[in-house]
Write a structure and sequence with these properties.
The complex is a heterodimer. By secondary structure, chain A is of the alpha/beta class. Chain A has 15 helices and 18 strands. In chain A, the strands form four sheets. In chain A, strands 1, 2, 3, 4, 5, 16, 17 and 18 form an eight-stranded mixed beta sheet that branches. In chain A, strands 9-10-13-14-15 form a five-stranded parallel beta sheet, with helices on both faces. Helix content of chain B is 39%, strand content 13%. Chain B has twelve helices and nine strands. In chain B, the strands form two sheets. Chain B has a five-stranded parallel beta sheet with strand order 7-6-5-8-9. Chain B has a four-stranded parallel beta sheet with strand order 2-1-3-4. Classes of the chains: A alpha/beta, B alpha/beta.
Chain lengths: 453, 339
């Protein structure tokens, strides 16, 4: 890979998917330097000039690079768990071209220098684009408002206390008001901390395993409270990683009431249920905890209906020392970057959603929530692309992750959907395209778009 | 007989005053500005009268202003600084009122940290009461002196566009000012971060802005409010630095206002917090020192009118002390010489 500005590149013989415009069909994309300059059914009447580099996609899917709006990068502060470099390599291997990191680094991103450090380091690495959220409260302590205005000027896209809920209602009210002063969004980890003292989902399984439960009500109560505060303040609110059936209903109602509310979920919550923690598997100890099967199904329905706007990886790398502990002592969190696309494609392979709709929740929808230019294939936009085979099967082997941390609850799971190439600003940052596909210009295999079954 | 142009016993707030009453007080104040600028600053309008400054909250400039106003009218002045007890404030306040009332003052100038406390006290005394600031409720003499300052500079209040910027939520100055300005036909904008905007304020007739650049566009008057430092440590505002960056009045933000816009501040100023020294000290546009000067004239006008109304009230035989009224009457206590 090279940081030099590339020339003109024609991606031909692709199934072009652009959720923002609804495009899904055979097509070609021309990039020049860092930008997309054309998206068409056929470029150059099939005869590209000699100075254009031609990449034959072999009928594979070409889509905007994924926009992952919830990752923990652990740098600065916990580089033994993850670094900007290891996370960046994991991200590009997963087709992620933009990621937004939580402020729970050390030092915490409640001041401009930390934010600027991460932005500068990420730029030098020149892998996936990295944006940051700022802290809502100083030190993520939930008490005093952080300098949201100045942090936003330094590049913070929105504000969150990361894996902690803003529990104090007065602080949350003022955070919503203060952020709204500047048109900024507050992102909540919706969990009432006084109820969330357990280690897994509350219920029969927790009782059998003898583990302290986190009731679904911890999430439901916090969401309902927050929605009231949003109505009161006219603030802009986003609920991260919702996990219960009631949460979907609450968000749907808030949206119907015209409130400025959105939400996301992570693949964990539509692809797994609480049974994943059986045998005290600490890799499946997540926050919020994996819920019951009816909740999982409701999350799938929420994605289908659009109540859940986006899918984010919720990448929470933990070193093995934090996970190889008795279940109650083990750290919360799962590695999510490298399984983001493949596990999300379950929604397509299971017939729940069309490929385009799954991609929408991974590209243009999260980009729109944060006001990012990313996530669409349009003239003049940055050439952030991913080429993938939606059908290729593989088995998740966490030990092979590029991420430093291997704590995936999907370890050993057979999945479908393989990233072949990732392009950021026109540069190839990840390439696993078979040589044959590159050369096969003779008989293009134009697959017809698979319909949602 | 009470002054027909301002027939109220008390001045507890701007709310309820008519434009004619406000103009009357401003006209009277205007005359005292001349007196104050002359060589002989003392009149005998209130000779022999007693004015009590009853302050339940620390204040230097307002108390001094009332004291000077009373002395220039020839009245006797007593300053009482009362520490508010954290328990049974209401009882203590009423006890204080009854005690003071027995000493027959003519006017009490009262400041109290609790909204409504001055009215509670006013209900228990026979004399006139002027509100020198109650909690986050009203500070009518400040609004009158601000109005006088504007009227003298601009020749009118009606039709002007006034921006009130800063901690509107906790500010009695802001409330009295927008009530007065709206009554007099001015347009009022408030500009603040949303944490410092009181709920429902837009329904009181003001326009709400959260951006200084947009809010200051084409205004005639920029009124800055003081922001208490204890509110700038994360509860309402993240930091002084951030507040000054977005809401502090500096040359660049002021550039949005009309070229002849006036800069006002009720004092005391936090330089570098809500206002840059560069604009605070701009002799062409800052009228902050003039506000202090006119404050004395306004308080002279208010004290004179209220003292005379109080005499008329007591001459008419009213007594707020309830069951003691008859007894006091027999002893001839409330009936001082009317004017």
């Amino acid at each position: 890979m090279s940081v030099a500005t590339p020339g003109r590149v024609a991606y031909i013989n692709a199934r072009v998917l652009d959720p923002a415009t609804g495009r899904d069909g055979p097509g070609e994309v021309l990039t020049s330097g860092e930008e997309i300059v054309d998206v068409a059914r056929k470029l150059f009447d099939g005869h590209p000039p000699a100075d254009v580099e031609v990449v034959d996609c072999g009928g594979m899917c070409l889509a905007p690079g994924l926009v992952d709006t919830r990752v923990q990068l652990r740098e600065p502060g916990e580089e033994h768990k993850e670094s900007l470099k290891s996370a960046g390599e994991a991200a590009v291997a997963a087709g992620v071209t933009t990621m937004v990191c939580l402020p729970n680094t050390n030092p915490i991103m409640d001041d401009e220098p930390t934010l600027e450090f991460v932005a500068r380091r990420a730029r030098l690495l020149a892998l996936t684009k990295v944006y940051c959220y700022g802290a809502i409260t100083k030190g993520l302590q939930g008490k005093e408002l952080a300098e949201m205005g100045l942090l936003a000027e330094a590049g913070a896209l929105a504000f969150t206390d990361a894996t902690r809920a803003v529990a104090d209602a007065q602080v949350m009210r003022r955070a919503l008001q203060y952020a709204a002063t500047f048109g900024l969004m507050i992102i909540q980890h919706p969990e009432e901390p006084t109820l969330a003292t357990g280690v897994m989902n509350s219920g029969e399984l927790a009782t059998r395993m003898g583990l302290a439960g986190i009731p679904r009500e911890a999430e439901i109560i916090m969401l309902e409270r927050d929605i009231r505060l949003v109505a009161m303040t006219d603030g802009r609110y986003h609920a991260a990683h919702i996990s219960t059936a009631d949460s979907v209903e609450i968000i749907a109602r808030a949206k119907a009431d015209g409130l400025k509310v959105s939400c996301d979920t992570a693949p964990f919550y539509f692809a797994l249920n609480e049974l994943a923690v059986t045998d005290y598997r600490t890799f499946a100890k997540l926050s919020p905890p994996l819920r019951a099967e009816n909740d999982r199904r409701a999350i799938v329905e929420g994605l289908k209906s659009g109540v859940i706007d986006a899918i984010a990886s919720d990448h929470a790398p933990q070193d093995s020392d934090s996970k190889r502990l008795p279940f109650p002592q083990a750290a919360f969190g799962g590695s999510g970057l490298e399984t983001l696309l493949a596990v999300s494609l379950d929604l397509y392979h299971n017939g729940d959603m069309s490929l385009l709709e799954v991609l929408r929740r991974l590209t243009s929808a999260p980009a729109d929530l944060l006001g990012l230019e990313a996530g669409r294939l349009a003239k003049g936009r940055k050439a952030d692309l991913t080429i993938f085979d939606p059908d290729q099967g593989w088995k998740v082997i966490a030990d092979k992750f590029k991420s430093k941390s291997k704590n995936s609850p999907f370890d050993g799971r057979p999945v479908q959907g393989r990233v072949l190439r990732t392009v950021v600003d026109g540069r190839v940052v990840f390439n696993a395209m078979p040589h044959a596909a590159k050369e096969s210009t003779a008989s293009p295999v134009n697959r017809t778009p698979a319909k949602a079954r | 007989m009470r002054d027909p142009a301002f027939p109220h016993r008390h001045l507890l707030g701007i709310e309820g005053l008519t434009p004619a009453e406000i103009n009357y007080l401003l006209d009277l104040s205007d005359r005292y500005v001349g007196v104050n600028r002359g060589p002989e600053k003392t009149s005998d309008a209130l000779r022999g009268r007693t004015i009590v400054n009853l302050f339940f909250e620390n204040s230097t400039r307002t108390r001094t202003s009332f004291e000077l106003a009373a002395k220039r009218l020839g009245a006797n002045v007593i300053n009482m600084q009362v520490e508010t007890s954290s328990v049974v404030k209401g009882e203590t306040l009423i006890d204080t009122a009854v005690t003071l009332n027995a000493m027959h003052p003519d006017v009490l100038a009262v400041r109290h940290p609790d909204s409504g406390a001055v009215k509670l006290l006013a209900d228990k005394v026979n004399c006139g009461v002027v509100n020198g600031g109650d909690g986050s409720h009203e500070h009518p003499t400040q609004a009158l002196l601000d109005a006088l300052t504007i009227r003298r500079r601009k020749g009118r209040l009606s039709g002007l566009l006034v921006a009130i910027c800063g901690d509107v939520l906790h500010s009695r100055v802001a409330r009295s000012n927008f009530l007065l300005l709206l009554t007099m036909g001015a347009r009022v904008r408030i500009i603040a971060p949303r944490t410092l905007i009181p709920s429902g304020v837009d329904r009181l007739g003001v326009e709400v802005f959260t951006d200084m650049t947009a809010g200051l566009k084409d205004v005639d008057i920029v009124m800055m409010l003081r922001v208490q430092s204890e509110r700038m440590r994360g509860s309402f505002i993240p930091s002084v630095r951030e507040y000054f960056h977005f809401f502090g009045l500096d040359r660049a933000k002021l550039g949005q206002a009309k070229p002849d816009a006036l800069i006002m501040h009720p004092g005391p100023m936090n330089r570098g917090t809500e206002i840059d020294s560069d604009v605070a000290d701009d002799v062409e546009r800052s009228v902050i020192r003039e506000q202090v000067e006119l404050g004395v004239a306004v308080r002279m006008a208010v004290l004179e009118v209220l003292a005379n109304n109080a005499s008329a009230h007591n001459a008419a035989g009213h007594n707020a002390a309830g069951h003691n009224a008859a007894a006091d009457s027999r002893q001839g206590l409330p009936g001082r010489t009317g004017t």
